[in-house]
Amino acid sequence: CARRAAKYPQEARLYRELVRCEMFRRTVFQGEQRPGFLLPQPVWVESLLAALACHDDTGEVDKHRNTALEAITDTGGQWNGGAFDWASDSDSRLGPVLELVTGGVYIRLPFSQIRSLESPQPARLTDLLWKPVNITLVNGDTHGAWLFTRYSGSESASDALRLCRETAWQDGPGETTVRALGQKVWLTSHGDISLLDMAHCTFHAQENDGA
Question: Cα–Cα distance between 206 and 132 in angstroms, integer?
Answer without folding.
Answer: 25
